[in-house]
Structure formats: structure tokens, C-alpha cells
Design brief:
This protein folds into five domains: 1-21 and 458-489; 29-50 and 115-147 and 201-376, Beta Barrel (Thrombin, subunit H); 51-114 and 148-200, no CATH class; 378-442, no CATH class; 491-498 and 518-576, no CATH class. Helices cover 35% and strands 21% of the residues. The protein contains 15 helices and 13 strands. The strands form two sheets. It has a six-stranded antiparallel beta barrel, surrounded by four helices. A six-stranded antiparallel β-barrel has the order 8-9-10-13-12-11. Helix 4 runs parallel beside helix 8 (180-196), helix 7 (157-173) crosses helix 8 (180-196) and helix 12 packs antiparallel against helix 13 (413-428). The protein is elongated and about 150 Å long.
């Protein structure tokens, strides 16, 4: 019984301890700064580049256009729809031209062909040391109609603007200054006329990600690393996941979590490269591309998609460019892929707080189908260790680790920043200098300062562990002490004889048959110490205890009254 109580106590203690020790560290809540620092290297900007030969045809306007415009303006003046001033006449002619340009345009037969490119950006995160990367399908896949529109916008917009500028100059020489609305109307019509005759051929698609640092003054594209598309789903409402691969090893990684454990109200963090905070003309793009943006929120709900699978709703702020980026839980584990936000149908603006992420379990399915197992890289393991050492006050250990990381994987801003901070802290806290073995013996090295506890645990966890250890030791000593006292206490009543049943044989399944116990032979035992008594003895030769005088047929071991003439007790089997 005592052994069972001790075993139960040890089991409870082990369960409590397992919840606190580093084996469960990944499930522990991270402070926001640590979460951001650890995961920044593994979150990358993904760029999809489409290149094609784009052909468009020159056009001119039929000569009847001018005559028709003059006739219509004259009619409008005659019918008093407009006044007869030059200002009103020019305004009417430009408005009519914008409305009817399409009907008077015709192709001249002359064509121009240029190799054009257009691109889209999103976010991705690395899940294996050898460079497997997760992002959204819509970041790397675009339908043909939308792609042609992108080519038109990137290649033809310039020509439309030039045409509008020339028209504006002609009107200025005639004495009329066009308004911005009139200029926009002319440019838009030219743009549509060019786009309608455009042809796209020899389309090629390439993918790259921007990882690590961009040296000041260098070309940002020089740090782009090529990607191969390995598996792709369908954009929303489909399973909007794509898996890409880059060549190399020991890339920084992020840790994948379990979205099944999420509840409404759980805090989450979105990380990525929103275009408004990365590619804006008002920002230093070379610097902005080095560091992803972190926003926070909660899980608002879990919604069902039309395809029968669920998606996570969050109010964490995400925008264009965040697509494909990780959504972290408080333990710094990826539990979703930021995918889309709701738009106001009336205004087209994004609705605040209505953003959605594909659960990480969907990405895990894709990876499993490819026989790809997410794992932490040596880079990330060392970086975690260095960060824990720095946060624990062991600046010299952190400095050595960070130097090694920076030598093998140079160019990560977050590593270089922490390296600089560790170097400064180590210089301000020099290690004690010893002069030889004698000095070492006289002054043993003091343990390194651990402001946040040992093994990177918080101080409160260390205190709890110590209390539990002391409680366990006290419980075991108490139980053992009670067990011993019970075994040695003198008995005023004769104890029944206990057969020494054998323990379960090692390796034998529970319930298997075992040999029956052997019945002891010889004289009756002493009720106090169990030693064999001589016939008719009044005192035990072993312990000196007085032997109970039994009536005829009474068992000296258990006190059972047996019939006269019985040789062995029917209760315990002792010899009478």
C-alpha cells in the first residue's frame, strides 16, 4: 500500500514538473519581443515575376471625328445647353471626345512589341532546414485575365499618360487649361484603346524570396533567392496553399503548431510584409524589406468555407502583401496562414477587423502528401540558445554563439543587432580573470548570472519546482517513517499468519498463472517477531515476548478455536 502511495505521489509530481521543464518550453507563452526576434529570420518576402512579349497596335482617329464634334457643339449652343464662351466650348468638346473616342479609333496596322514584366508580392515562411517554404496559392498563381490586366497596367499606362500629356499641351497652346478630371478621362480612354489590342506571348513565371540582409547601397534584387513551385492548391474559396523550395541548407525556420487547440479569444500575432509598410515610395524599401511587420489580435471565430473546411477569423491587422505570412499563437508557433480580408462592397475598402487565415493543418496536409516533415534548423536552434543566454544575462556565451551564427549564416539583421547588443553588454560585464591552477583552486568560478532562472525558465517556474521538490521529499520521508513504525510496533493481539505470496514474475503478463504459495511447516511462530517457538514454550527465545497460553484446540497464531484433536488450524494452517 505504501509503495502505491509513493508511486502515485511521484506520478503527480512528474506531471507537474513536465509542464514546467524545457521539454514543454515550446508550449509556454513567449513575450512579444522574443516571439518576434526568434521568428523574424524565417519569415520572408515572396515575389512572383511574370515575363512576356507584349504586342500592341497603334491607332488613329477618323477625320470625321472633328467635324462631328464641331456640329454637336454648335447644336448644343443653339439649343442653349451650353453658353457660347470659349471656355464652355472647349469643355463640351473634351467631354464629347472622351465619350466617343472608342467609336472613331481605328488601327493603323503598325505594331510594337516589347518584353515586359509584372510582379506580385506576398509573404512566406520556411519550415525545413533545406528550404521548404509555405505561402498562399494566390501569391504565386494568377488567372489569365487578371495577368493581362497587370501587364496592361505596367506596360501601357506610360503610353496612355504620354498621349494625355500631348493632348493637354495642344489645348494649352489653344488657350485652354485642362482640369485634372479631363486629363484623367483622356488618359483612361487611351489606356483602354491600347489594352484592347494587346497580345501577350511567351509567358514565363519565376519565383524568388528575399532573405537576410541587403547591404546599404546594393541592389535589393541581388539578395533574391530563386524558388521552385512544388505543390499548389486553389485560391480562395479553395485551399489557398502553395509549397515552394529553395536550394541550400540550414535556413532559419519557424515552428508549426496545432490549430485544433485554438479557442475564440486566444491571442495571435500576424507577421509579414504588407505593401503599405514595405514598398511605399515614402519608405526606404531596401531597409523595409529586411524586417517583417508584426501586428496582434485575437481569434474572433472559426468559420466554415463552402468546400466544407474551416478558416480562422482574426482581428489582427493584415493588408496586401501579408498574404501567405504566418499567424502565430502566444507560444510562437504558426497556427495559420494569413490569406484575405473582407471588402466593403459599396466602397471597395477593406473592413477593419475582418481578416482570415487558413489553418496550419491544411498546410501540414500538403507537406505530408509530399513526404516533407517540418523541422527546426541548426541556425534557429543556436539562435534560440543565444537569445536565451542573452536574456539570462550570460552575455559572453551569447556573444560566442552569435559570432558562430553570423559566420556560417551572414547577413541577417536580427542576428547582427543582437550580436552588437551582446558585444556591448559583454564589454560592460567582463568575465573574472584567473592566473593559473592555484588561483582556480582558491577561487572557484561563480555560476553565470541568470536573471530569468536556469535553462531559460522564468524565476517563478524555478520557485515552483523547488517547492514541489521539497514537498515530495517530505511526503516520501513521512510515508516511509509511518511504514517502519507500523512494522515494528509491539502487538497486544496475536496477528494472523500471512503467507509470503510471491511477487509477479518479471515479464509475465498480469493475470498469468503463478505457482501456489508453500504452506510453512514446523512449530507455531511468535506473535511478536515471527520466530519459531519450541513446544510448550512460555517465552520466545528470539525476542523474549511472553507466549500466549492457549486453550485446547485454540490456535497460538491467530487465536481460532479448533475442534479437539485437530493438528492444524483451519483458519491459518499453523500447527497446533
Amino acid at each position: 500500500m505504501m509503495k502505491k502511495r509513493i508511486a502515485a505521489t511521484l506520478l503527480i509530481f512528474a506531471m507537474l514538473l513536465a509542464a514546467l521543464l524545457p521539454g514543454s518550453a515550446l508550449a509556454a507563452v513567449m513575450d512579444t519581443r522574443t516571439l518576434a526576434t526568434v521568428n523574424k529570420p524565417g519569415v520572408v518576402l515572396v515575389q512572383t515575376v511574370w515575363t512576356a512579349d507584349v504586342t500592341w497596335y497603334e491607332f488613329a482617329f477618323d477625320s470625321s471625328m472633328e467635324d462631328d464634334l464641331i456640329d454637336e457643339v454648335a447644336r448644343m449652343i443653339e439649343d442653349e445647353e451650353i453658353g457660347s464662351s470659349d471656355q464652355e466650348i472647349y469643355q463640351a468638346m473634351i467631354a464629347l471626345m472622351i465619350q466617343n473616342m472608342y467609336y472613331y479609333a481605328f488601327s493603323t496596322g503598325n505594331a510594337q512589341t516589347e518584353q515586359m514584366s509584372t510582379a506580385a508580392v506576398g509573404t512566406g515562411f520556411i519550415v525545413t532546414p533545406d528550404g521548404y517554404l509555405v505561402t498562399n496559392a494566390h501569391v504565386v498563381k494568377t488567372d489569365e485575365e487578371e495577368l493581362n490586366l497587370q501587364f496592361a497596367m505596367s506596360s501601357l499606362e506610360q503610353y496612355a499618360e504620354e498621349a494625355a500629356d500631348l493632348f493637354e499641351e495642344e489645348m494649352r497652346r489653344s488657350g485652354y487649361q485642362m482640369s485634372q478630371t479631363e486629363w484623367d478621362g483622356i488618359a483612361t480612354e487611351y489606356y483602354y484603346l491600347l489594352a484592347q489590342s494587346m497580345e501577350v506571348e511567351n509567358l514565363q513565371t519565376s519565383y524568388q524570396c528575399f532573405i537576410g540582409n541587403v547591404a546599404p547601397g546594393s541592389d535589393v534584387s541581388a539578395k533574391g533567392k530563386g524558388l521552385d513551385l512544388r505543390k499548389i492548391g486553389e485560391p480562395i474559396p479553395g485551399k489557398d496553399i502553395a509549397i515552394l523550395k529553395m536550394d541550400g541548407d540550414n535556413f532559419p525556420t519557424v515552428t508549426l503548431g496545432d490549430d485544433a487547440k485554438l479557442k475564440t479569444g486566444d491571442r495571435v500575432y500576424a507577421m509579414g510584409y504588407p505593401a503599405v509598410a514595405t514598398l511605399s515610395d515614402t519608405l526606404n524599401v531596401a531597409q523595409a524589406i529586411q524586417e517583417p511587420t508584426l501586428t496582434q489580435g485575437i481569434i474572433s471565430a472559426r468559420k466554415e468555407m463552402a468546400g466544407g473546411w474551416s478558416i480562422l477569423q482574426t482581428d489582427a491587422a493584415i493588408h496586401g502583401g501579408n498574404s501567405g505570412g504566418p499567424l502565430f499563437n502566444e507560444a510562437g508557433e504558426v497556427i495559420g496562414i494569413n490569406t484575405f480580408g473582407m471588402l466593403d462592397e459599396s466602397s471597395g475598402a477593406q473592413v477593419a477587423g475582418m481578416n482570415f487565415a487558413v489553418p496550419i493543418s491544411i498546410a501540414k496536409q500538403f507537406l505530408h502528401e509530399m513526404n516533407v516533415t517540418p523541422a527546426e534548423s541548426g541556425f534557429t536552434a543556436k539562435f534560440r540558445e543565444a537569445l536565451a543566454a542573452y536574456n539570462g544575462g550570460d552575455y559572453h556565451a551569447a556573444l560566442e554563439l552569435l559570432r558562430g551564427i553570423n559566420e556560417t549564416n551572414p547577413g541577417f539583421p536580427v542576428v547582427q543587432e543582437l550580436l552588437a547588443e551582446a558585444r556591448e553588454a559583454a564589454d560592460a560585464n567582463p568575465q573574472p580573470v584567473t592566473v593559473g591552477p592555484a588561483a582556480e583552486a582558491a577561487a572557484p568560478e561563480a555560476p553565470a548570472k541568470k536573471e530569468n532562472g536556469f535553462l531559460g525558465l522564468p524565476l517563478i517556474a524555478v520557485i515552483l519546482i523547488g517547492v514541489l521538490l521539497l514537498a515530495l521529499a517530505a511526503a516520501i520521508l513521512l510515508l516511509m517513517s509511518k511504514g517502519k513504525k507500523k512494522a515494528k510496533a509491539p502487538q497486544t493481539e496475536p496477528l494472523p499468519y500471512q503467507y509470503p505470496f510471491p511477487t509477479q514474475p518479471f515479464g509475465q503478463p498480469l493475470g498469468a498463472a503463478s505457482s501456489p504459495p508453500a504452506i510453512p511447516q514446523g512449530n507455531a511462530p511468535c506473535a511478536n517477531c515471527g520466530a519459531s517457538l519450541q513446544a510448550n514454550a512460555k517465552f520466545c527465545n528470539e525476542c523474549g515476548a511472553q507466549v500466549m497460553q492457549c486453550e485446547s484446540g485454540q490456535c497460538p497464531a491467530c487465536g481460532r478455536k479448533n475442534e479437539d484433536g485437530t493438528k492444524f488450524c483451519i483458519e491459518c494452517g499453523a500447527k497446533l
